[in-house]
Amino acid sequence: MSAKVELQGEQPARYDGVAMLLHWVIALLIFFLIALGLYMDHASVSDPVALHQLHKSVGIITMLLIAVRIIWRLTHKAPPLPQGMSGIQRVMAGSVEGILYLFQILLPATGWLMVSAMAMPLVLFGLVAWPLIPLPQSVMDSGSLAEMMPGLHQWLGWIFAGFIALHVLAALYHRFIKKDHIVERMVPGHRSDR
């Protein structure tokens, strides 16, 4: 049997090309969204509406890619963690991965809910109208959800940034201290079987 043929049920040594592409594209989009969000909060700009529309547009695209990534992850096996990892490290790795996926869902969902509660138009890149989440008229009339959502979205963003930093630090630890090649499983062009 060719080495390139993966037996059904066998775990791959590395993530496949689709998983890698989704991981790195989504990571870049998330870094862009965080940077743009910080810029919008702290800079006086001549056209804040354009920046908000860009943030919302990229956020929706990222949300759609995250949905694809989750479906791909559920239908394709991930490579195993190194055998030398302790039980606590395995639990931490799984927990942080789960939390990162959760925040990748929560942040765009709260952003979408926020603009829906504020009845703000959502037009992707000025070209495609995106529907708002239908909310009960009583919720719209009270305005409490519209008042609460910006703060919630911002705080979730800060917490998410903290978990991203933890994820990056863990990757650096594995790459430069443990040298167990766990990072290479998600880097195109690297071999993890050295």
UniProtKB/TrEMBL annotation:
Q: Which family does it belong to?
A: Belongs to the cytochrome b561 family.
Is the keyword Transmembrane assigned to this protein? yes
Q: Which Pfam families match?
A: Ni_hydr_CYTB
Has keyword Repeat? Answer: no
Topology in membrane: Multi-pass membrane protein
Domain of life from the UniProt record: Bacteria
Enumerate the spans annotated as Cytochrome b561 bacterial/Ni-hydrogenase domain. 14-189
Instruction: State where the protein is found.
Output: Cell membrane
Q: What is the lineage of its organism?
A: Bacteria, Pseudomonadati, Pseudomonadota, Alphaproteobacteria, Acetobacterales
This protein is called Cytochrome b
Against SUPFAM superfamilies, the record matches this protein to: Transmembrane di-heme cytochromes
Membrane-spanning residues: 21-40, 52-72, 99-132, 152-173
Write out the entry's keywords from A to Z: Cell membrane, Electron transport, Heme, Iron, Membrane, Metal-binding, Transmembrane, Transmembrane helix, Transport
Needs which cofactor? Answer: heme b
